Amino acid sequence: MSDAHKVAAPDPDDFLEVDGSLSPEERDIRDTVREFSARELAPNVADWFDAGTIPDPRGLAKSFGDLGVFGMHLDGYGCAGASAVSYGLACRELEAVDSGLRSFVSVQGSLAMTAIHKFGSEEQKNTWLPRMAAGEVIGCFGLTEPDSGSDPGSMRTRARRDGADWVLDGTKMWITNGSVADVAVVWAATEEGVRGFLVPTDTPGFTANVIHKKLSLRASVTSELVLDGVRLPDSALLPGSNGLGSPLSCLTEARYGIVWGAAGAARACYRAALDYAGTREQFGRAISGFQLTQSKLADMLIDVNHAALTALQIGRLKDAGRCHHTHVSFGKLSCVAAAQRVASEARSIHGANGITLEYPVLRHMLNLETVATYEGTAEIHALSLGQAVTGVSAFR
Q1: What is the full DSSP assignment across 50-101?
Q2: Is 296 in the same domain as 344?
Q3: Based on the structure, what is the number of domains in the chain?
Q4: How far is residue 328's CA from residue 256's CA, in Å, rounded to a whole number?
Q5: In this structure, are 52 and 150 located in the same domain?
Q6: Which of 25, 207, 264, 286 is in Cβ range 3.0-4.6 Å of 226 for a Cys bridge?
């Protein structure tokens, strides 16, 4: 075979050429978010993680708004109307830096904005969505409670009618952006079933308390929301919300971003391990030349590319209108597990250096513990897939 017909060696960073199938527009979005992340986020994220917070969340929100990633998959109201794959690529590049930063974008766009876009009135959409897309207003999404996580139907937050108003009482827990939000989308049980409400955070009776001493997702603001006799006008109700399916559909949107985000975290850990193995010398040579290290890198390479392929295929199904919520469960379960395996192996390749914030691997490893838990634990998604293939529900 002549040299002209030799197949080029695979790219270690895209071994199966997953990104080779992207459209020019998708590549442009990928590159724009990747460059922004490298310039604005990566140099700071270790310090933010160390501090356990984002020092300037409003400034970051404005930067994300200028970048155009808030609600970028939604149509109209100042949103870009980008494809599902394009939004997924943005999530991948953000989480390649840190899960907390992707969570900031997911909660704003896939949870709070999506709830308003799907279930809000035209007045609510016009009031909130353009400012949220621009990063001028921060939103949060209140579904999980201290005693209601995997079983949101057991929520204790209640909304009762009082004349022309609604009065809300209850507590929400583990709410990203809660204490910096301007508006909270709060889900509450009513006599009519579960309904969604838009709660301006300066409403009397509303309190957001920052959760401290986290060991994961530290470059993020996480809060408890307390609603004590919060009185809202009837116009605060999301009129299209109807039952538990409404918030769960928003969670499916956010989980879709996690599928891509986990692929980004896996890629970042693999790349860090590959670089480190090539420069770390023991016994007179780089550890990348040792069989056990190469075995680890090979396993990581497979997980990284499997996750990337899974994310892209689910994205293509979504853009074609053929994505079932169990497809997203498949992606969340498989991609997060793959990322956890990669992060663990990457930490081992880094040795003692792997436990410091000088390298990203343990930070990703810790973050992925949260990613594996929130918006559906591994167990819940496994049961979702079990039900999909057997036709039998094991939930109740």
Answers
A1: HHTS-S-HHHHHHHHHHHT-TTTTSEETTEE---HHHHHHHHHHHHTT-HHH
A2: yes
A3: 3
A4: 6
A5: no
A6: 207
> Exposure string (b/e) for 306-315, b if CB count within 10 Å is 16 or more?
bbbebbbebb
- Identify each DSSP E strand in 234-306 by its residue range: 281-282, 285-286
Instruction: Identify residue 211 by its one-letter amino acid code.
Output: I
State the maximum Cα–Cα separation within the chain, in Å, rounded to a whole number.
Answer: 84
* C-beta of residue 105 within 8 angstroms of C-beta of residue 256: no
Run of H or E residues at 350: helix 325-350
Residues 136, 191, 375, 379: which is the catalytic one?
375
Q: 330 lies in which domain range?
A: 245-390
99-106 and 57-67 helices, crossing angle to 10°: 70
Position 67 in a domain: yes
Q: The domain spanning residue 51 has which CATH number?
A: 1.10.540.10
Neighbours of 242 (CB within 10 A): 14
Strand duo 139-142 + 183-190: pairing: parallel
For 56-87, b/e burial (b = at least 16 CB within 10 A) is ebeebbeebbebbbbbbbbeebbbbebbbbbb
Q: Does residue 25 carry a catalytic annotation? A: no
Burial zone of 141 (CB within 10 Å; 0-12 exposed, 13-18 middle, 19+ buried)? buried
Give the span between the Cα atoms of 184 and 178, in whole angstroms: 7
Residue 311 lies inside a defined structural domain of this protein = yes
Could you read off the pLDDT tens digit of each residue along the chain, which spans 396 residues? 456 678 999 999 999 999 999 999 999 999 999 999 999 999 999 999 999 999 999 999 999 999 999 999 999 999 999 999 999 999 999 999 999 999 999 999 999 999 999 999 999 999 999 999 999 999 999 999 998 888 888 899 999 999 999 999 999 999 999 999 999 999 999 999 999 999 999 999 999 999 999 999 999 999 999 999 999 999 999 999 999 999 999 999 999 999 999 999 999 999 999 999 999 999 999 999 999 999 999 999 999 999 999 999 999 999 999 999 999 999 999 999 999 999 999 999 999 999 999 999 999 999 999 999 998 899 999 999 999 999 999 987
Whether pTM > 0.85 for this model: the answer is yes
